[in-house]
Amino acid sequence: MARRIVRDAARQLRTVGPWKPARGKDPKPWLHYCVVGPTYALIDQPRIALQRYLGVASQGGLILDAQQGQTEWWLKGGIRIDFRSGDRPERLVSPGYNGVLLDEAARLKSKVWSENLRPTLSDTRGWALFTSTPLGRNWLWEEVFAKCDPSAAAELAKLRDCRPEDILDPNYVGVTWTTAENTALPHLAEEMEQARRELPEEQFARNYLATFDIFPGQIFRLVETRHLIGAPPDTARFRRLGAGIDIGTTHPTSVTLAGELLQGGWEELDTLSAANVLFDDSADWARRDLDGSMWTSRVYRLFKRFAGDGWRAIPLRFPADRPDVAEVFRRRGFNVLPAFQAHEPAIAWCQTAFHAGRLRVRSSLLWRCLLTIRRPESGERSTKAWVDKDDDQWDSFRYALSEPISLSESPTGTSLSAVGWMAPR
């Protein structure tokens, strides 16, 4: 990206002349660029690379001010670079960019590019760069990679019943490489072999072999004799507990309680799921609701069973879209906290934990749900990284594991950056 900016500046200087800032108003950039990532934390790497290449003005470089955490840089000559998060695509509005970089593009929603960033390049006839670790045949494979890769175009042509020539586009150029091809860091060969032993096949293939083809089908390949346990849990064996709730309107509500073992690893203790159940009644809810007809009482009894009088300390993780229900539980004394809702980190963490034997489940309800979770096939639209159907128990389960996932507490004792995730700062 830095080289493209320097090249653009040289062409702009020849054709338009130097920048002349307007007086008495906010300056209009001479050239305007944008770096977009899934979160602000994941923009750090391109920011560091740009700073190394362009340099800061105080040391003879181009960047006038490059403080950590800034959302925009001004360069000498009126060049501006914006750093934006793609978590809210509708906020990516601009009068026009000369170029954009979509970093970890596969983790972005497709409309970040198609509906928001691409139109900003029309007036300037600007360019776009996509960098990413593959995440299966999602929108990046279909809308970008297949336009420059003959084998991907041939595969997509079969699905669309057309010719590969109808998909390939000479305006798109693609380059791929694997970790093994990085000869500048000799230790990577040893690191790859360790990762091959520790990580699930698809995580290894995605992050070290840069393949788009590993993700179709079932997400969790579980073995009953290894990952499903039926013995009653001994609560003395757990260091901490965590719970998650997925609120149902047109589908069942689900609550999962999980615990971290003293020797490491996590276990699901129990999962409750039901439709058409109310959340609250009156002030004496814990005593009066003897038949357990409301969710506040059901969760209370679940927590009491495993934590006794310490039930109030168990964090109950709620999704962001139901603050009204969260407030009901908060008034009843529950320790209500926001759930960590990022999709790919939850999948990566759980796949790695299951593979390492550090995550097990007890209820057949959750077990059956996990076996049905699958990724969308090409052309199958989903707002999640999996097909949004019959996933209620999976949602409450991953919410219950919010703390270790969000803090990047690897179930194998190593950094989760190895499976494509870095915790936000």
At a glance:
With about 425 residues, this protein is an alpha/beta fold.
What does this protein structure show overall?
By secondary structure, the protein is an alpha/beta fold. The protein folds into three domains: 2-132, P-loop containing nucleotide triphosphate hydrolases (Rossmann fold); 179-208, no CATH class; 224-419, Nucleotidyltransferase, domain 5 (2-Layer Sandwich). The protein has helices at 2-15, 44-54, 110-117, 139-143, 150-160, 188-198, 201-208, 224-227, 285-288, 295-307, 323-331, 343-355, 364-372, 392-400, 402-406, and strands spanning 31-37, 72-75, 79-85, 99-103, 127-131, 238-246, 253-261, 266-274, 315-318, 335-338, 359-360. Strands 10-9-6-7-8-11 form a six-stranded mixed beta sheet. Helix 13 (364-372) crosses helix 14.
What is the makeup of the main sheet?
6 strands, mixed
Q: Order of strands across the widest beta sheet?
A: 10-9-6-7-8-11
> Which architecture of the largest domain per CATH?
2-Layer Sandwich
C-alpha Rg, in Å? Answer: 25 Å
Shape: globular
- Average pLDDT, rounded to a whole number, is 83
Number of helices: 15
Strand content: 15-25%
Which fold does the CATH topology of the largest domain refer to? Nucleotidyltransferase, domain 5
The string of secondary-structure elements, in order, is HEHEEEHEHHHHHEEEHHEHEHEHHH
Structural class: alpha/beta
Number of domains: 3
Spatial separation of the terminal alpha carbons? 25 Å
- CATH top level assignment of the largest domain: Alpha Beta
Helix content, binned percent: 25-40%
Strand count: 11
- Low-confidence region ranges: 414-425
